[in-house]
Amino acid sequence: MKYLLVANAYPNKDRIYSNTFLHRRVKSYQQKGLEVEVVVMSTKVIHDEIFDGVTVKYMDEYQLTDYVNTCPEIKTILIHFMNQKMFTAVSQIEREVNYIIWLHGFEAEPWYSRYYNYTVSKKALSDQLAKIDYYEKQRNMFQTLYKMDNVTFIFVSESFKKYYVDPFVRQAPPRYYIIPNLIDEKLFPYREKKEADRFKVCNIRPYTAPNYANDITRDVILKLSKKKYFKKMEFSLYGDGPLFKEMTEPLEKFENVQLYQGFVRQDDISDIHAHNGIYLGPSRHDSQGVSLCEAMSSGLVPISNDIGAIAEFVEHGRSGFLAGRDQVDEMVFYIEKLINNPELFMQMSVYASDMIIKKTGTENVIKKELEVMIHD
Question: Boundaries of each Glycosyl transferase family domain copy (predicted)?
């Protein structure tokens, strides 16, 4: 029996960081003895290739339909980032096939769940309103999929399902599981922290939209600059996007704030974690908060906001601290608490890594996914 994973993108020799979390899944499935092939939805003519031992094919929706219809060993199709082209293929497949569909975020929630992203200009709002038909088609698609007996859904968090997807689709799916995206503890290994590391704060985020809360990161640092201990602190901010200059310009005057504009390679993230003790990761919208989870795996203590699904992954007061939405002063308070309590910082660092690996570590997540894939 062959498993077919269908996605919107997958790593290749030219884009090795494209949906790498999917590649880690596939390699884990292979290690467990499963035969897995990947199809990337594409209208371009691209030859099949082997990437790190994984066969990757590029097909449009009609080629995918024909391929599955003529390949009887494919019994289960695994789909990530479900879209209309994938749905067209599913609708035309004539063979009896089981589908497992992972829901991660944007593909299954209303545009207004991130309304603040479109208040920056009239054009941003008008451009989004012009896509209303897209969201209606997505809703209809999921309503149809919910009625199919051979479809099972996997949500990355309970909060994402309850507060975003269910209201958007206007009903709950009959068959689903809650399984988070995995965090590879080999890629983000725990490194024991020293008490002095509580003065070292990092942030790795895109600077593309308000939901990433880069303004909160900036404002927290500006507030901390009024504190006596500020000169002892070190801040490292990584990321890129059209908002980078605007968000970070007020911080350029500080010698202890290092600004690194550019894409951060995944291999480099672990090294950044190794040189820091606190991960300042404010947010306005998260279905899981993968960057927070990665930092916790490395032993950093996260400071974030109690929004979306973050509280499912950060245990307030034990593995990190969660402030209210947009609460800059509260985040400053929690950082100060760690600075004034080195023993607490050390305890939380150990617990953060231990807890997140138990919840999102590779072995645990893959075990749960295989149970669904093989037995459901």
Answer: 223-352
pTM of the entire structure?
A: 0.94
CA–CA distance, 261 with 246 (Å, rounded to integer): 12
> Which region, left, alpha or beta, applies to residue 210 given φ > 0 means left and ψ of -120 to 50 means alpha?
alpha
pLDDT band per the 50, 70, 90 thresholds, residue 116: confident
CA distance 101 to 146: 11
Strands across the sheet containing 301-305: 257-261, 234-239, 200-204, 278-280, 301-305, 321-323
| Nearest partner of 268 among 187, 352, 206, judged by Cα | 187
> Residue 198 gets which letter from DSSP?
G
Whole-angstrom distance, CA of residue 360 vs CA of residue 373: 18
- Which ranges of the chain does DSSP label H, i.e. alpha helix? 20-31, 61-69, 84-92, 122-129, 132-146, 158-159, 166-169, 214-224, 244-248, 266-274, 290-297, 328-340, 342-360, 362-375
What is the mean predicted confidence (pLDDT) over 143-148?
Answer: 98
Q: Extract the tokens encoding 24.
A: 């880690």
DSSP label at residue 14 = S
Give residue 261's pLDDT: 98
**Any long-range contacts for 369-375 (C-beta under 8 Å, 24+ apart)?**
369/25, 369/154, 369/179, 370/29, 370/32, 370/34, 372/100, 372/152, 372/154, 372/177, 372/179, 373/3, 373/29, 373/34, 373/76, 373/78, 373/100
- Residue 263 burial (CB < 10 Å; 0-12/13-18/19+)? exposed
**What's the whole-number average pLDDT of the chain?**
96
Helices (H) and strands (E) in the chain, counts: 14, 14
The Cα 155–Cα 165 span in angstroms is 9
pLDDT digits (tens, 9 = 90+) for 238-280: 999 999 999 999 999 999 999 999 999 988 999 999 999 999 9
How far apart (Å, rounded) are the C-alpha atoms in residues 265 and 268? 5
Distance CA(306)–CA(288), nearest Å, equals 12
Number of Cβ atoms within 10 Å of the Cβ of 118: 19
Instruction: At 99, give phi and psi (nearest 5°).
Output: -120, 135
Residue 45's pLDDT band, with cuts at 50, 70 and 90, is: confident
